Amino acid sequence: MPLGANKAAIMGVAGVSTADVVLLSSQTASNATSVTFSSGIDSTYSEYIFKFYNLNPATDGAFLTFQVNATDGADYNDSAITTSVFYNKHSEADDSTNLAYLTDHDHAQATTYINIITGIGNAADESASGEMHLFDPASTTYVKHFYTNVNMVQGPAAGNSNFMVSGYINDTTAIDDINFKMNSGNFDGLIKMWGVK
Fold first, then answer.
1. pLDDT, tens digit, for every residue of 116-169?
2. 163 contacts 86 by C-beta, under 8 angstroms
């Protein structure tokens, strides 16, 4: 059967063959302060995909953030990250929309935690889901590029919002550790890490 006729059955994460994508780790957060992937990020794969499933913060309007450690780091404040942030929103009441480049959420050579998405609602039916792609983190020659695409129900003004963040980790030391947390309070949800051959 031609590939096109059976594409839906054989394509997996990020639209590549499921034979090329390997689930490496799955972590469930239950009132957690953070989720850390500290093993499995190495030269085995040239791309790593992190999937976020229904992340629900304890604090209404919390920001999902991340930071990394290089192989010579230990405290998530040594690798400088530069980003650009694009945002779109449509309220549940159909009374407001927004499409913007968010300069106030950009980072330039920041060693603090980086915003992936801002303003996640904490009600029982509110959450954020999406993904982050990290390219060639084991390189000892180049910076490490990444991008994220995350949807959420935004609180306190409920509505659908989408954040797209792109950037690079300005570190030519291999990155082997990544930490996700809310900027305020704990959270529930599921994060999975995939390796792409």
1. 999 898 998 899 999 999 999 999 999 999 999 999 987 666 688 999 999 999
2. yes
CATH number of 22-196: 2.60.120
Cα–Cα distance between 188 and 54 in angstroms, integer? Answer: 8
Euclidean distance between CA atoms 131 and 111, whole angstroms: 22
Exposed, middle or buried, 108 (CB in 10 Å: 0-12/13-18/19+)?
exposed
Pair 39, 193: CB distance under 8 Å: no
Tokens 């949800």 label which residue? 189
Q: 47-65: per-residue pLDDT in tens?
A: 999 999 999 999 999 999 9
Residue with tokens 């300005």: 170
Q: For the chain, give every domain's residue range.
A: 22-196
